[in-house]
Design a protein that fits this description.
The protein has 12 helices and 17 strands. The strands form 4 sheets. Strands 3, 4, 5, 6, 7, 8, 15, 16 and 17 form a 9-stranded mixed sheet that branches. Strands 11-13-9-14 form a 4-stranded antiparallel sheet, with helices on one face. Strands 1-2 form a two-stranded antiparallel ribbon. The chain is elongated. It is 37% helix and 24% strand. By secondary structure, it is of the alpha+beta class. A hairpin with a 2-residue loop joins strand 1 and strand 2. The structure holds (2S)-amino(hydroxy)ethanoic acid and manganese (II) ion (MN) (2 copies). The site of one manganese (II) ion (MN) has 6 residues, from loops. (2S)-amino(hydroxy)ethanoic acid binds next to loops.
Length: 406
Amino acid sequence: MPLRINPARLRADFDALARIGAAGVGVHRPALSANHLAARAWLRERILAAGLEFRQDAAGNHSGILRAASPAARTLLLGSHTDSVPHGGRFDGALGVLAALEALRTVQDASLELPVHLEAIDFTDEEGALVGLLGSRALTGALTPGELAQPRGGLAALRDGFARAGITDPLGAARPPGSLAGFLELHIEQGPRLIEAGADIGIVSAIVGIGSFRLAFGGRADHAGTTPMHARRDAGRGAAEFMVRARGLVTRDFPGCVINFGRAAFEPGAYNIVPERAELALEFRSPVQAELDALEAALLGEARRVAAACHLELEAVKQGCVAPAPCAPEARAAFAAAADDLGLRHIPLVSGAGHDTQALAAVCPAGMIFIPSTGGSHNPGEFAEWEACVNGANVLLGAAIGWLDR
Ligand code: HGY
Ligand code: MN
Ligand code: MN
Protein backbone atom coordinates (compact mmCIF):
# COMPACT_ATOMS: atom_id res chain seq x y z
CA MET A 1 0.00 0.00 0.00
CA PRO A 2 1.64 3.30 -1.05
CA LEU A 3 2.21 5.81 1.74
CA ARG A 4 -0.50 8.41 2.28
CA ILE A 5 -0.37 11.62 4.31
CA ASN A 6 -2.49 12.13 7.43
CA PRO A 7 -5.25 14.49 6.23
CA ALA A 8 -6.47 15.39 9.71
CA ARG A 9 -2.97 16.34 10.85
CA LEU A 10 -2.43 18.45 7.74
CA ARG A 11 -5.83 20.09 8.16
CA ALA A 12 -5.13 20.98 11.78
CA ASP A 13 -1.85 22.61 10.74
CA PHE A 14 -3.48 24.42 7.82
CA ASP A 15 -6.26 25.87 9.97
CA ALA A 16 -3.82 26.86 12.73
CA LEU A 17 -1.47 28.63 10.32
CA ALA A 18 -4.38 30.40 8.61
CA ARG A 19 -5.26 31.96 11.96
CA ILE A 20 -1.82 33.61 12.24
CA GLY A 21 -2.04 37.00 10.58
CA ALA A 22 -5.66 36.26 9.65
CA ALA A 23 -7.41 39.15 7.91
CA GLY A 24 -11.02 38.20 7.19
CA VAL A 25 -10.93 34.94 5.24
CA GLY A 26 -7.38 35.65 4.09
CA VAL A 27 -4.05 36.41 5.70
CA HIS A 28 -1.81 39.45 5.95
CA ARG A 29 1.74 38.13 6.45
CA PRO A 30 4.19 40.27 4.44
CA ALA A 31 7.72 38.86 4.59
CA LEU A 32 9.42 39.33 7.98
CA SER A 33 6.50 41.32 9.36
CA ALA A 34 5.44 40.58 12.95
CA ASN A 35 2.64 38.37 11.58
CA HIS A 36 5.08 36.46 9.41
CA LEU A 37 7.54 35.96 12.24
CA ALA A 38 4.68 34.67 14.39
CA ALA A 39 3.87 32.17 11.65
CA ARG A 40 7.49 31.09 11.52
CA ALA A 41 7.66 30.67 15.31
CA TRP A 42 4.60 28.43 15.04
CA LEU A 43 6.20 26.44 12.20
CA ARG A 44 9.39 25.95 14.24
CA GLU A 45 7.30 24.62 17.11
CA ARG A 46 5.49 22.18 14.78
CA ILE A 47 8.83 20.98 13.36
CA LEU A 48 10.23 20.34 16.84
CA ALA A 49 6.96 18.74 18.00
CA ALA A 50 7.34 16.28 15.12
CA GLY A 51 10.77 15.29 16.39
CA LEU A 52 12.42 16.68 13.28
CA GLU A 53 15.65 18.67 13.21
CA PHE A 54 14.99 22.41 12.97
CA ARG A 55 17.26 24.66 10.90
CA GLN A 56 17.17 28.39 10.16
CA ASP A 57 19.74 29.54 7.65
CA ALA A 58 21.41 32.91 7.12
CA ALA A 59 18.55 34.09 4.88
CA GLY A 60 15.96 33.15 7.49
CA ASN A 61 14.76 30.09 5.56
CA HIS A 62 13.08 27.76 8.06
CA SER A 63 13.45 23.99 7.65
CA GLY A 64 12.51 20.71 9.19
CA ILE A 65 14.94 17.92 8.34
CA LEU A 66 14.63 14.14 8.37
CA ARG A 67 18.21 12.96 8.14
CA ALA A 68 19.39 10.00 6.09
CA ALA A 69 21.62 7.43 7.72
CA SER A 70 24.66 8.72 5.83
CA PRO A 71 25.82 12.25 6.81
CA ALA A 72 27.22 12.60 3.29
CA ALA A 73 23.78 12.12 1.71
CA ARG A 74 22.42 14.86 -0.54
CA THR A 75 19.20 16.70 0.32
CA LEU A 76 15.83 16.49 -1.39
CA LEU A 77 14.02 19.76 -0.63
CA LEU A 78 10.24 20.06 -0.48
CA GLY A 79 8.57 23.35 0.32
CA SER A 80 7.28 26.79 -0.56
CA HIS A 81 6.69 29.99 1.46
CA THR A 82 4.64 31.23 4.44
CA ASP A 83 4.91 34.93 3.61
CA SER A 84 1.88 36.39 1.84
CA VAL A 85 1.09 39.39 -0.29
CA PRO A 86 -0.64 42.18 1.63
CA HIS A 87 -4.18 40.92 2.42
CA GLY A 88 -3.65 37.72 0.45
CA GLY A 89 -5.07 34.24 0.63
CA ARG A 90 -4.43 31.46 3.10
CA PHE A 91 -3.40 28.85 0.49
CA ASP A 92 -0.69 30.65 -1.54
CA GLY A 93 2.62 29.20 -0.31
CA ALA A 94 1.33 27.98 3.05
CA LEU A 95 -0.17 24.81 1.60
CA GLY A 96 3.17 23.88 0.03
CA VAL A 97 5.12 24.35 3.25
CA LEU A 98 2.64 22.36 5.34
CA ALA A 99 2.33 19.57 2.77
CA ALA A 100 6.13 19.29 2.78
CA LEU A 101 6.16 19.05 6.58
CA GLU A 102 3.39 16.44 6.43
CA ALA A 103 5.40 14.41 3.90
CA LEU A 104 8.37 14.30 6.29
CA ARG A 105 6.15 13.24 9.19
CA THR A 106 4.57 10.51 7.07
CA VAL A 107 7.96 9.14 6.01
CA GLN A 108 9.16 9.31 9.61
CA ASP A 109 6.04 7.55 10.92
CA ALA A 110 6.62 4.77 8.38
CA SER A 111 10.28 4.50 9.45
CA LEU A 112 11.15 4.66 5.78
CA GLU A 113 14.92 4.76 5.23
CA LEU A 114 15.69 7.17 2.39
CA PRO A 115 19.07 7.65 0.67
CA VAL A 116 18.74 11.43 1.02
CA HIS A 117 18.09 13.93 3.76
CA LEU A 118 14.48 15.00 3.32
CA GLU A 119 13.98 18.70 4.12
CA ALA A 120 10.75 20.69 4.34
CA ILE A 121 11.55 24.37 3.77
CA ASP A 122 9.80 27.72 4.13
CA PHE A 123 11.60 30.27 1.94
CA THR A 124 11.94 33.89 3.01
CA ASP A 125 10.19 36.64 1.02
CA GLU A 126 8.94 34.66 -1.97
CA GLU A 127 6.34 37.36 -2.68
CA GLY A 128 8.73 40.27 -3.08
CA ALA A 129 7.63 42.54 -0.27
CA LEU A 130 11.39 43.00 0.17
CA VAL A 131 13.32 41.58 -2.80
CA GLY A 132 11.38 38.61 -4.21
CA LEU A 133 12.47 34.96 -4.07
CA LEU A 134 14.94 36.27 -1.51
CA GLY A 135 15.34 33.05 0.50
CA SER A 136 15.41 30.63 -2.41
CA ARG A 137 17.86 32.75 -4.39
CA ALA A 138 20.07 33.13 -1.31
CA LEU A 139 20.05 29.36 -0.83
CA THR A 140 21.07 28.79 -4.46
CA GLY A 141 23.75 31.48 -4.36
CA ALA A 142 21.96 33.65 -6.94
CA LEU A 143 21.11 36.58 -4.62
CA THR A 144 23.44 39.54 -5.19
CA PRO A 145 24.62 42.42 -2.99
CA GLY A 146 23.16 44.73 -5.64
CA GLU A 147 19.67 43.33 -5.11
CA LEU A 148 20.02 43.86 -1.36
CA ALA A 149 21.24 47.41 -1.98
CA GLN A 150 18.29 48.26 -4.25
CA PRO A 151 15.40 46.08 -3.00
CA ARG A 152 12.05 46.56 -4.72
CA GLY A 153 10.32 46.90 -1.35
CA GLY A 154 12.67 49.70 -0.30
CA LEU A 155 15.78 49.70 1.87
CA ALA A 156 13.98 50.69 5.05
CA ALA A 157 11.56 47.75 4.79
CA LEU A 158 14.44 45.35 4.12
CA ARG A 159 16.52 46.62 7.01
CA ASP A 160 13.57 46.62 9.41
CA GLY A 161 12.61 43.10 8.38
CA PHE A 162 16.14 41.79 8.71
CA ALA A 163 16.46 43.46 12.12
CA ARG A 164 13.19 41.86 13.33
CA ALA A 165 14.27 38.46 12.04
CA GLY A 166 17.90 38.69 13.15
CA ILE A 167 19.15 38.28 9.57
CA THR A 168 22.58 39.83 9.11
CA ASP A 169 24.21 38.13 6.13
CA PRO A 170 21.65 36.44 3.85
CA LEU A 171 24.29 35.73 1.22
CA GLY A 172 25.71 33.21 3.68
CA ALA A 173 22.76 30.89 3.05
CA ALA A 174 24.19 29.48 -0.19
CA ARG A 175 24.28 25.68 -0.13
CA PRO A 176 27.38 23.82 -1.41
CA PRO A 177 27.02 23.10 -5.13
CA GLY A 178 25.84 19.56 -5.70
CA SER A 179 24.42 19.17 -2.21
CA LEU A 180 20.82 19.26 -3.44
CA ALA A 181 19.31 16.18 -5.05
CA GLY A 182 16.27 18.21 -6.12
CA PHE A 183 13.35 20.44 -5.17
CA LEU A 184 9.60 19.73 -5.35
CA GLU A 185 6.82 22.22 -4.63
CA LEU A 186 3.05 21.98 -4.25
CA HIS A 187 1.05 25.16 -4.93
CA ILE A 188 -2.50 26.21 -5.80
CA GLU A 189 -2.86 27.09 -9.50
CA GLN A 190 -4.13 30.62 -8.81
CA GLY A 191 -5.96 30.50 -12.14
CA PRO A 192 -8.84 28.73 -13.92
CA ARG A 193 -7.17 26.21 -16.24
CA LEU A 194 -7.31 23.03 -14.16
CA ILE A 195 -10.98 23.52 -13.42
CA GLU A 196 -11.71 24.32 -17.07
CA ALA A 197 -9.86 21.13 -18.08
CA GLY A 198 -11.48 19.01 -15.37
CA ALA A 199 -8.01 17.98 -14.20
CA ASP A 200 -6.91 17.17 -10.64
CA ILE A 201 -3.22 18.04 -10.92
CA GLY A 202 -1.23 20.46 -13.06
CA ILE A 203 2.34 19.34 -13.67
CA VAL A 204 4.25 22.55 -14.29
CA SER A 205 6.41 22.46 -17.44
CA ALA A 206 7.90 25.95 -17.13
CA ILE A 207 7.64 29.10 -14.98
CA VAL A 208 7.48 32.63 -16.33
CA GLY A 209 10.29 35.14 -16.09
CA ILE A 210 9.45 38.41 -14.32
CA GLY A 211 10.92 41.89 -14.83
CA SER A 212 10.13 44.86 -12.61
CA PHE A 213 10.98 48.56 -12.78
CA ARG A 214 10.38 51.59 -10.63
CA LEU A 215 9.46 54.31 -13.16
CA ALA A 216 9.23 57.99 -12.27
CA PHE A 217 7.99 60.77 -14.58
CA GLY A 218 9.32 64.18 -13.52
CA GLY A 219 7.48 67.41 -14.34
CA ARG A 220 6.81 70.71 -12.56
CA ALA A 221 4.52 71.44 -9.66
CA ASP A 222 2.09 74.18 -10.71
CA HIS A 223 -1.16 75.78 -9.69
CA ALA A 224 -3.97 73.48 -10.79
CA GLY A 225 -6.24 76.41 -11.53
CA THR A 226 -4.20 79.16 -13.05
CA THR A 227 -1.77 77.15 -15.19
CA PRO A 228 -3.07 76.81 -18.79
CA MET A 229 -3.46 73.16 -19.84
CA HIS A 230 -0.94 73.55 -22.68
CA ALA A 231 1.66 75.02 -20.30
CA ARG A 232 1.69 72.18 -17.79
CA ARG A 233 4.48 69.65 -17.28
CA ASP A 234 2.11 67.23 -15.65
CA ALA A 235 3.87 64.09 -14.36
CA GLY A 236 0.52 62.50 -13.64
CA ARG A 237 -0.50 62.86 -17.27
CA GLY A 238 2.72 61.12 -18.35
CA ALA A 239 2.14 58.21 -16.01
CA ALA A 240 -1.48 57.84 -17.07
CA GLU A 241 -0.69 57.98 -20.78
CA PHE A 242 2.12 55.46 -20.36
CA MET A 243 -0.06 53.01 -18.43
CA VAL A 244 -2.67 53.01 -21.20
CA ARG A 245 -0.15 52.82 -24.04
CA ALA A 246 1.90 50.10 -22.31
CA ARG A 247 -1.16 47.89 -21.93
CA GLY A 248 -1.99 48.39 -25.61
CA LEU A 249 1.57 47.53 -26.59
CA VAL A 250 1.51 44.26 -24.65
CA THR A 251 -1.90 43.08 -25.86
CA ARG A 252 -1.05 44.05 -29.46
CA ASP A 253 2.61 43.05 -29.81
CA PHE A 254 3.28 40.59 -26.93
CA PRO A 255 0.14 38.41 -26.67
CA GLY A 256 1.97 35.75 -24.62
CA CYS A 257 2.99 38.28 -21.97
CA VAL A 258 1.34 40.21 -19.17
CA ILE A 259 1.98 43.60 -17.58
CA ASN A 260 0.94 45.14 -14.28
CA PHE A 261 1.15 48.50 -12.53
CA GLY A 262 0.75 47.56 -8.89
CA ARG A 263 1.21 51.05 -7.49
CA ALA A 264 1.02 54.66 -8.69
CA ALA A 265 2.01 57.60 -6.51
CA PHE A 266 1.83 61.32 -7.35
CA GLU A 267 3.79 64.01 -5.52
CA PRO A 268 3.23 66.43 -3.85
CA GLY A 269 -0.19 64.74 -3.93
CA ALA A 270 -2.62 67.63 -3.35
CA TYR A 271 -5.91 68.32 -5.17
CA ASN A 272 -4.75 71.75 -6.32
CA ILE A 273 -1.14 71.05 -7.40
CA VAL A 274 -0.17 69.74 -10.84
CA PRO A 275 1.89 66.61 -9.98
CA GLU A 276 5.61 67.17 -10.09
CA ARG A 277 6.49 63.47 -9.83
CA ALA A 278 4.58 60.32 -10.71
CA GLU A 279 6.05 56.96 -9.67
CA LEU A 280 4.85 53.62 -11.09
CA ALA A 281 5.59 50.06 -9.96
CA LEU A 282 5.85 48.23 -13.28
CA GLU A 283 6.02 44.45 -13.61
CA PHE A 284 5.94 42.35 -16.79
CA ARG A 285 6.20 38.62 -17.49
CA SER A 286 7.03 36.15 -20.25
CA PRO A 287 7.82 32.43 -20.32
CA VAL A 288 10.63 33.15 -22.83
CA GLN A 289 13.75 35.15 -21.87
CA ALA A 290 14.25 36.68 -25.33
CA GLU A 291 10.63 37.85 -25.32
CA LEU A 292 11.02 39.23 -21.79
CA ASP A 293 14.08 41.20 -22.96
CA ALA A 294 12.24 42.47 -26.04
CA LEU A 295 9.24 43.49 -23.94
CA GLU A 296 11.48 45.36 -21.50
CA ALA A 297 13.07 47.31 -24.36
CA ALA A 298 9.68 48.07 -25.92
CA LEU A 299 8.21 49.32 -22.64
CA LEU A 300 11.18 51.55 -21.82
CA GLY A 301 11.09 52.94 -25.36
CA GLU A 302 7.40 53.74 -24.98
CA ALA A 303 8.01 55.39 -21.61
CA ARG A 304 10.70 57.60 -23.16
CA ARG A 305 8.36 58.59 -26.00
CA VAL A 306 5.61 59.53 -23.59
CA ALA A 307 8.02 61.52 -21.42
CA ALA A 308 9.26 63.45 -24.46
CA ALA A 309 5.73 64.15 -25.68
CA CYS A 310 4.70 65.46 -22.25
CA HIS A 311 7.92 67.44 -21.70
CA LEU A 312 8.88 65.30 -18.71
CA GLU A 313 11.99 63.64 -17.38
CA LEU A 314 12.02 59.87 -16.97
CA GLU A 315 13.78 57.77 -14.34
CA ALA A 316 13.71 53.98 -14.79
CA VAL A 317 15.28 51.84 -12.07
CA LYS A 318 15.39 48.08 -12.56
CA GLN A 319 14.00 46.36 -9.45
CA GLY A 320 14.98 42.80 -10.21
CA CYS A 321 14.55 40.30 -12.96
CA VAL A 322 13.94 36.59 -12.51
CA ALA A 323 14.61 34.34 -15.49
CA PRO A 324 11.98 31.97 -16.81
CA ALA A 325 12.75 28.37 -15.89
CA PRO A 326 11.84 24.99 -17.33
CA CYS A 327 10.91 22.31 -14.78
CA ALA A 328 13.10 19.21 -14.69
CA PRO A 329 11.89 16.21 -16.72
CA GLU A 330 12.70 13.87 -13.80
CA ALA A 331 10.52 15.97 -11.50
CA ARG A 332 7.68 16.03 -14.00
CA ALA A 333 7.95 12.25 -14.44
CA ALA A 334 7.97 11.66 -10.69
CA PHE A 335 4.84 13.82 -10.27
CA ALA A 336 3.09 12.08 -13.20
CA ALA A 337 3.84 8.62 -11.78
CA ALA A 338 2.59 9.65 -8.34
CA ALA A 339 -0.59 11.15 -9.78
CA ASP A 340 -1.18 8.03 -11.88
CA ASP A 341 -0.73 5.82 -8.77
CA LEU A 342 -3.50 7.86 -7.15
CA GLY A 343 -5.76 7.69 -10.20
CA LEU A 344 -5.61 11.48 -10.54
CA ARG A 345 -5.97 13.20 -13.92
CA HIS A 346 -3.01 15.48 -14.65
CA ILE A 347 -2.14 17.94 -17.40
CA PRO A 348 1.00 19.98 -18.14
CA LEU A 349 0.77 23.72 -17.41
CA VAL A 350 3.04 26.73 -17.80
CA SER A 351 3.03 28.82 -14.64
CA GLY A 352 2.05 32.47 -15.07
CA ALA A 353 3.05 33.02 -11.44
CA GLY A 354 6.61 33.11 -10.21
CA HIS A 355 7.67 30.52 -7.66
CA ASP A 356 10.66 29.43 -5.59
CA THR A 357 10.92 26.44 -7.95
CA GLN A 358 12.31 28.72 -10.66
CA ALA A 359 15.14 29.77 -8.35
CA LEU A 360 15.99 26.18 -7.39
CA ALA A 361 15.89 25.12 -11.06
CA ALA A 362 19.19 26.96 -11.51
CA VAL A 363 21.08 24.53 -9.26
CA CYS A 364 19.19 21.23 -9.14
CA PRO A 365 16.35 19.31 -10.83
CA ALA A 366 13.25 21.19 -9.68
CA GLY A 367 9.57 20.87 -10.36
CA MET A 368 6.16 21.70 -9.04
CA ILE A 369 2.51 20.78 -9.20
CA PHE A 370 -0.67 22.81 -9.00
CA ILE A 371 -4.04 21.86 -7.57
CA PRO A 372 -7.25 23.50 -8.74
CA SER A 373 -8.15 26.73 -6.99
CA THR A 374 -10.95 29.27 -7.32
CA GLY A 375 -11.41 32.93 -6.43
CA GLY A 376 -8.25 34.00 -8.23
CA SER A 377 -5.31 34.69 -5.92
CA HIS A 378 -3.39 37.47 -4.23
CA ASN A 379 -6.70 38.28 -2.61
CA PRO A 380 -8.38 36.92 0.53
CA GLY A 381 -10.89 34.92 -1.51
CA GLU A 382 -8.46 32.40 -3.03
CA PHE A 383 -9.77 28.91 -2.26
CA ALA A 384 -9.05 25.22 -2.86
CA GLU A 385 -11.24 22.27 -1.95
CA TRP A 386 -9.75 20.25 0.89
CA GLU A 387 -9.87 17.06 -1.19
CA ALA A 388 -7.65 18.79 -3.77
CA CYS A 389 -5.21 19.83 -1.05
CA VAL A 390 -4.97 16.23 0.18
CA ASN A 391 -4.51 15.02 -3.40
CA GLY A 392 -1.69 17.49 -3.90
CA ALA A 393 0.02 16.54 -0.66
CA ASN A 394 -0.15 12.84 -1.56
CA VAL A 395 1.25 13.51 -5.04
CA LEU A 396 4.08 15.53 -3.48
CA LEU A 397 4.82 12.66 -1.07
CA GLY A 398 4.58 10.04 -3.80
CA ALA A 399 6.86 12.01 -6.11
CA ALA A 400 9.46 12.51 -3.37
CA ILE A 401 9.62 8.80 -2.61
CA GLY A 402 9.26 7.73 -6.22
CA TRP A 403 12.01 10.15 -7.23
CA LEU A 404 14.45 8.25 -5.09
CA ASP A 405 13.58 4.95 -6.72
CA ARG A 406 14.17 6.32 -10.23
O1 HGY B 1 4.04 37.16 -8.11
C1 HGY B 1 4.04 35.95 -8.25
O2 HGY B 1 3.89 35.47 -9.34
C2 HGY B 1 4.20 35.05 -7.06
O3 HGY B 1 2.95 34.89 -6.44
N1 HGY B 1 5.15 35.58 -6.13
MN1 MN C 1 3.18 31.52 -3.98
MN1 MN D 1 1.92 34.64 -4.51
